[in-house]
Amino acid sequence: MVDAASLEGTPWVLSAGISVEGWEQAAPTATFEGSAVSGSTGCNRFSGRYALDGDALALSALATTLLACAPPLDAVERAFVAALERVAGWRVAGGELALLDATGEELLRFAPASLAGKWVVTAFRRDGEVTSVLADTEITLALADDGTLVGSGGCNVYRATYAVAGGSIELSAPFSTRKACLQPEGVMEQEAAYLQALPTVARYRLDGRVLHLLTARDTLVATLTRAGG
Questions:
Q1: CATH of domain 4-112
Q2: Closest to 49 measured CA to CA, from 61, 31, 66
Q3: pTM surpassing 0.70?
């Protein structure tokens, strides 16, 4: 019997199926959950509906944002969306997701998205509002495969642990060094607010090279971009 739980709730990142040279620069992503599918085409964000019937998978017409994509991302998007339009089935084997056409041939292959690596915070929730990081400061988050994380709060180094299961993520309360930074103005208050927000993270969403950390109610806690691109 096909277990829908093996498909749903996991953020997937494309690992094969597109022949466009350079597609790895911004591999498309997809998450299936609660009859809604969403992700990144490699440039634009897409969303739609899906229905499961055993190993059959029907996707609705997809809505996408309308950013102009520079090469090769424009070609990646066209190839990815064209493949999604042909999807009629699915299977998960060896921890990877394959989307299939009506004849059972594989169209796209996905692996569970990895959060390992360094991320740079571009915005986070503070005093009930999402605000950009102060100019001339940098907040970072580096996740290791062993479940540890380290980063800079803009002044001090902080450490914590994390655990990922599907689209859920749990972070321990961070502990940090105790250096005082006087410049730029407000950096210490920003750091304190960021470190206080981290333990409220319960879920995540990955859109290409952009990571969204969310509360259990899908309220945005922080937006980060993968370092190096």
A1: 2.40.128.270
A2: 61
A3: yes
CA–CA distances in Å: residue 85 to residues 58, 61, 116, 120, 224: 9, 8, 31, 34, 30
The predicted-structure confidence for 96-155, as pLDDT tens digits, reads as follows 999 999 999 999 999 988 899 999 999 999 999 999 999 999 999 999 999 999 999 999
- Please state whether 147 falls in left (phi above 0), alpha (psi between -120 and 50) or beta: left
Q: Range(s) for CATH 2.40.128.270 in the chain?
A: 4-112, 117-226
Is the separation of the CB atoms in 111 and 207 below 8 Å?
Answer: no
Q: What is the CATH number of domain 117-226?
A: 2.40.128.270
Task: Dig out the tokens for 47 from the structure.
Answer: 């969303």
Q: How far apart are the first and last CA of the chain?
A: 41
